[in-house]
Write a sequence for this structure.
């Protein structure tokens, strides 16, 4: 277990090699790039397996290694150290396991891209940073990983840099998440000021001894940490960056914007749960944010036409369920859903990648249709993925989501209300995900893509198959982490249980009615003068982008433009100008005319005398 | 003695550069490089010789200069000065490397000015007689004036004069404060002296101390520069040749920060305490104002210049936050900003050398033709925006953490600078390296002519990258160097430091 550091070192080494080797040897052969890029993650996954094996066999509750003292200034002590427990191990498994599959898929997906080596070097750096994030034993190191994944997200969203639009999306993602990161940083400052420690385990142990439940301090700290979490995990009100993040290559969306990075907020809250448990108000807010995001993003997903944006809003919505789970105290449930979501959402995104690649970068689902014959593999992926996403029984999504729903019902206070909202969200989930399936894969074949042939090498097909199996059966082993507080198991009314299971089927039925059997035409609904503005409101993501633009971006740009010449400089220019003016005035008196001199001399004498006399 | 040797090498090599030009115009740059490498070795020797860093002062040399007025040749260094000396000499080498091909006109006189400026800076970081300090302050100024005025760009005369007047006026304030301080000391003790160690214990009346503190403060924050004394900087940077910008941003600005730490805090601890709210307000405004101004610029060099103002605002904040984390953060920010801003100015200079423009609206898509240059630019923009793992993050994080302890409101407002930094820093990458080749206005675009980094550029950027990464992951070594100096500062702010400073002061080596 003391080789724990190997896990993030392999991807880091991959990044360094892929960055530095071309400096000396020129462009690397693609096979070598693929070998380093995917191989490093494979080694990392193997190391995780091995360490997990040893760790579980040892029966220890946790394990800690310190690599070196990072910062030691007066009473501030921060180590470069890793911490391993079952929560960390779960996250490491998801990151390296799903990460490896996505890397292998990318070997095929990106094969014709000129930036092949750059792509894999960024991907490797991402995995390294993500591993540091979940393995860090203190909040500063966690912050390093946190910002590191943000950087890689920026680099990969803007991967196709020649299109300025992609650059804009990338910067938007970085800056919006930085807003949350800054709140989190202030949270760290406050934690350090009050507790004098930033080691996660010390904070978790110290907090309950120092503060009363519901006190101002734990609430403030929990809210600041929550700020970081909502930024990274694209929850209300900082969710606006994620749909735009789809500008990056599709494997990125699968790895960063579905399976791993965007769930970092969930991990953060679970990791610091003792602090959150001291702040019931903040925890309630987590639940409310989660439920609201789940529902709102569901509505927006329903109106999108871009296959990746649908999945993006779906991710926002599913992370909403994880937040809801955290908020109602189903700590393990949140991590369980994080894991199954990583399986089925990665599957959906990679499936979407296959569709997009086969159809020559087509994103509009209404230009697809009847693809089940042309793209059979993608069809199966979408069927499994959507079933798991809609939480149909026997799929992995069912086990994790159902547990969350029941825990929500049982939550004291707001429980039933939140359950109702989450239920509506579940209905929407089934509706939009099967709308996608029916539109893309059923119906008459599209006229735009008659000649489409499925692009699938072995490198793409095998990861899809494995993820498909995981999305189906990945929920059978119920995940209950021993280092998180256990969920309160209480009986729920049978009707609640039944409704939770039945509602997704209703959603599928409605999707079938509108898009499969065409019993009614959704397009006429969309054109209805009453519903049209509503649809546009949903489509725009509830006007949040517009609001932020008017409220923040436009004023900032306005001030910057107005003051681009620096108003302070005019003060100094005025001093210079008045000096020069005075100089001119004085030099004007030097005329060389004797009369003038005599007259001013006389006048001056008179004035002086007058001043002296009176 | 080794300190005087260091200064003498730079002064002497400067003269040699000037004289050798008439024999061969290639010689000056080799002489300058050799002198700076030798100085780097000397600093390394200094560091290893005093590696145990026990006690605040590592080295001290005193001799009479003008005994009639109590002016002496007092040189001393502690860990803080040593780190800044290392930075100065290291960036000196980088500056020579950036000027290698760019300066062809009157190269002897150029390297003379470069080396004399550096000698002045070395003097500033080592002199601990206030008169001697002021002497070096002027030595640093005048050669830099020539560098901007002779080898600068289109509007160089204006920029050079502006730079000169700002520094000179503020320097006069400082001279006035120095003289009044010395005479007050004479009045109180009957001993006329400009020696730092003697003046430390002057029991000044609070009112007078306050005004003297203001005199020093203004001189140093003009140099730093802080809002609202910053307007000389964008002009000076934009117009200076690349090597001038590198030295200006990397080293000269740090003399202001050094002055605050070395003189303002220890000489006037109570007055500084009283003044802290005003100073921290200025620092916070600098952080945000600089960031907002940087965002508005189209000229690469102006953008980097305004970002410097933003980063230096953190230092003002830290100096008056008065705790160990903030002080260490300030020192780390001095080093980190020295490296990253030097690199960014070298990049901007490289771009101008290739494209004959600094206007980002005429650039774009250079990643395609010059990916190495792009990667280097990306790295230093990330350093500038405070990415963890790089030196700048350590500095800013510690500053904000420390400031939050003593003045949470300022820390929270200044933390908004963390949001503003990526807005302007990533814009550089977008406008210059990303986007379609040809930039926004294709008719005026300068693309296509951007060649990638050559071996010379790669090697000096690689050195800067290596140090930035090292400091980001292993900052502890620098903290240990500066810890005694920081402890002295802390003792001053809590009173009763006299014993510490004098007790650990050793004789000359």
């Amino acid at each position: 277990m003391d080789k724990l550091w190997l896990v993030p070192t392999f991807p880091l080494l991959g990044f360094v090699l892929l960055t530095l080797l071309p400096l000396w040897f020129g462009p690397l052969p693609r096979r070598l790039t693929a070998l380093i890029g995917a191989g490093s993650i494979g080694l990392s996954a193997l190391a995780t397996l091995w360490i997990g094996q040893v760790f579980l066999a040892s029966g220890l509750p946790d394990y800690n290694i310190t690599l070196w003292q990072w910062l030691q200034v007066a009473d501030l002590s921060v180590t470069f150290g890793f911490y391993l427990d079952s929560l960390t191990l779960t996250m490491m498994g998801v990151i390296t396991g799903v990460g490896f599959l996505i890397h292998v898929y990318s070997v095929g997906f990106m094969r014709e891209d000129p930036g092949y080596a750059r792509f894999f070097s960024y991907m490797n750096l991402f995995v390294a940073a993500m591993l540091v994030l979940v393995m860090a034993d203190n909040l500063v190191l966690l912050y390093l990983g946190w910002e590191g994944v943000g950087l890689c997200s920026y680099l990969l969203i803007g991967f196709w840099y020649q299109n300025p639009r992609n650059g804009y999306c990338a910067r938007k993602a970085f800056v919006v998440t930085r807003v949350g990161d800054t709140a989190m940083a202030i949270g760290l400052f406050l934690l350090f000021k009050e507790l004098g420690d930033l080691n996660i385990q010390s904070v978790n142990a110290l907090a309950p001894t120092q503060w009363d439940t519901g006190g101002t301090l734990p609430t403030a700290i929990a809210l600041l940490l929550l700020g970081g979490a909502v930024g990274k995990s694209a929850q209300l009100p900082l969710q606006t960056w994620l749909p735009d993040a789809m500008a990056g290559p599709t494997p990125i969306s699968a790895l960063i914007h579905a399976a791993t990075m965007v769930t970092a907020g969930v991990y953060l809250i679970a990791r610091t749960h003792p602090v959150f448990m001291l702040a019931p108000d903040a925890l309630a807010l987590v639940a409310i944010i989660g439920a609201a995001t789940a529902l709102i993003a569901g509505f927006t997903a329903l109106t999108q036409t871009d296959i990746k944006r649908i999945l993006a809003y779906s991710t926002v919505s599913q992370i909403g369920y994880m937040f809801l789970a955290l908020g109602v105290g189903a700590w393990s449930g949140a991590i369980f859903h994080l894991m199954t979501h990583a399986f089925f959402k990665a599957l959906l995104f990679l499936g979407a990648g296959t569709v997009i690649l086969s159809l020559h970068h087509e994103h509009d689902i209404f230009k697809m249709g009847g693809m089940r014959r042309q793209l059979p593999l993608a069809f199966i992926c979408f069927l499994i993925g959507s079933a798991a996403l809609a939480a149909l029984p026997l799929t992995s999504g069912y086990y994790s989501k159902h547990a969350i729903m029941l825990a929500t019902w049982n939550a004291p206070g707001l429980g039933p209300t939140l359950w109702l909202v989450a239920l509506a969200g579940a209905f929407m989930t089934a509706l939009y995900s099967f709308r996608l399936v029916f539109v893309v894969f059923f119906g008459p074949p599209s006229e735009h893509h008659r000649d489409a042939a499925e692009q699938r090498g072995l490198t793409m097909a095998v990861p899809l198959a494995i993820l498909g199996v995981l999305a189906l059966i990945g929920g059978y082993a119920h995940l209950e982490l021993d280092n998180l507080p256990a969920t309160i198991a209480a009986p729920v009314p049978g009707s609640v249980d039944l409704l939770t299971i039945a509602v997704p089927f209703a959603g599928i039925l409605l999707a079938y009615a509108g898009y499969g059997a065409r019993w009614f035409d959704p397009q006429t609904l969309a054109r209805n003068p009453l519903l049209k503005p509503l649809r546009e409101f949903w489509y725009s993501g509830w006007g949040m982008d517009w609001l932020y633009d008017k409220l923040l971006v436009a004023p900032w740009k306005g001030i910057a433009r107005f003051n681009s010449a620096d108003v302070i400089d005019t003060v100094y220019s005025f001093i210079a100008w008045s000096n020069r003016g005075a100089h001119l005035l004085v030099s004007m008196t030097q005329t060389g005319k004797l009369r003038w001199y005599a007259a001013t001399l006389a006048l001056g004498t008179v004035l002086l005398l007058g001043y002296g006399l009176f | 003695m080794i300190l005087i040797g260091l200064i003498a090498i730079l002064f002497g090599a400067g003269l040699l550069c000037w004289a050798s030009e008439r024999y061969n115009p290639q010689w000056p740059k080799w002489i300058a490089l050799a002198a700076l490498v030798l100085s780097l070795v000397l600093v390394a020797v200094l560091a290893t010789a005093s590696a145990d860093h026990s006690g605040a002062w590592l080295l001290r040399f005193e001799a009479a200069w003008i005994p009639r007025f109590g002016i002496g040749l007092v040189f001393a260094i502690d860990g803080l000065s040593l780190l800044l000396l290392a930075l100065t000499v290291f960036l000196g080498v980088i500056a020579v490397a950036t000027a290698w091909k760019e300066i062809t006109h009157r190269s002897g006189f150029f390297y003379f000015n470069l080396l004399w400026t550096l000698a002045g800076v070395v003097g500033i970081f080592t002199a601990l007689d206030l008169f001697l300090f002021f002497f070096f302050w002027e030595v640093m100024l005048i050669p830099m004036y020539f560098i901007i005025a002779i080898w600068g760009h289109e509007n160089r005369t204006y920029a050079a004069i502006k730079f000169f007047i700002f520094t000179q006026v503020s320097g006069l304030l400082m001279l006035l404060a120095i003289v009044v301080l010395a005479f007050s000391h004479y009045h109180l003790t009957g001993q006329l002296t400009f020696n730092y160690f003697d003046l430390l214990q002057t029991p000044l009346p609070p009112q007078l101390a306050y005004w003297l503190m203001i005199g020093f403060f203004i001189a140093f924050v003009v140099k730093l520069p802080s809002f609202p004394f910053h307007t000389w900087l964008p002009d000076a940077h934009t117009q200076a040749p690349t090597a001038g910008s590198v030295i200006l941003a990397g080293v000269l600005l740090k003399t202001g920060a050094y002055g605050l730490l070395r003189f303002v805090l220890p000489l006037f601890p109570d007055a500084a305490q009283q003044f802290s709210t005003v100073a921290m307000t200025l620092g916070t405004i600098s952080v945000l104002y600089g960031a907002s101004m940087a965002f508005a610029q189209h000229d690469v060099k102006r953008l980097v210049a305004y970002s410097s103002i933003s980063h230096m605002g953190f230092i003002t904040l830290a100096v008056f936050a008065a705790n160990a984390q903030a002080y260490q953060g300030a020192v780390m920010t001095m080093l980190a900003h020295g490296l990253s801003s030097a690199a960014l100015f070298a990049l901007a200079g490289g771009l101008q050398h290739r494209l004959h423009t600094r206007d980002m609206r005429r650039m774009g898509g250079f990643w395609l033709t010059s990916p190495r240059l792009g990667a280097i630019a990306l790295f230093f923009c990330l350093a500038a925006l405070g990415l963890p793992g790089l030196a700048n993050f350590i500095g800013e994080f510690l500053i904000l953490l420390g400031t939050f302890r003593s003045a949470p409101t300022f820390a929270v407002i200044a933390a908004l600078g963390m949001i503003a930094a990526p807005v302007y820093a990533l814009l550089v990458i977008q406008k210059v390296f990303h986007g379609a080749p040809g930039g926004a206005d294709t008719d005026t675009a300068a693309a296509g002519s951007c060649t990638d980094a050559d071996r010379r550029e790669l090697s000096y950027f690689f050195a800067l990258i290596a140090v930035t990464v090292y400091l980001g992951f292993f900052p502890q070594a620098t903290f240990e160097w500066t810890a005694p100096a920081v402890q002295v500062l802390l003792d001053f702010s809590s009173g009763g430091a006299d014993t510490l400073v004098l007790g650990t002061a050793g004789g000359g080596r």
